[in-house]
Amino acid sequence: MAPGAEAFQGEVRAAFAAVAQRLGLDGPVGGEEDRHLAVATFAGSGVAYKVVLGLWQGDVEIHVCRRTALTECKVGIEGLAVTAGVVDRRGGVSFGARSLRQLRRSLAGQVRYVELVHPLVSGDPATALSLMRAAGAREWHRPSAS
Fold it and tell me: Are 53 and 60 in contact (CB under 8 A)?
């Protein structure tokens, strides 16, 4: 079983500290959790990075999320980094979180990818969404305000 939600929140804070400061990200916000997941979110410049810990599966993944007036897109950090061309191939980071050591290693690699993709997804929304879609983002259309 993965480390507990309390340990997860502290490890995420530590892993993101320097990068969040450099990129102007606020967080962690919304320490959501249920029986299966724990989530911590860092956000800024129109982008949110949701760090999701699967408590039963023992894995961790950062999802890159971008909202517009009409849609919300979400994609895994590794797929986005590969599609953006900032890394050569998949398999360069780990996702394991069955121990604190695995969690720290996985967070360190994935946070590095956040730093690499942030300039590409924090700028023009149309360009960011196009890149995210090319990386296989899931997309939801938001209901229009009436």
Answer: yes
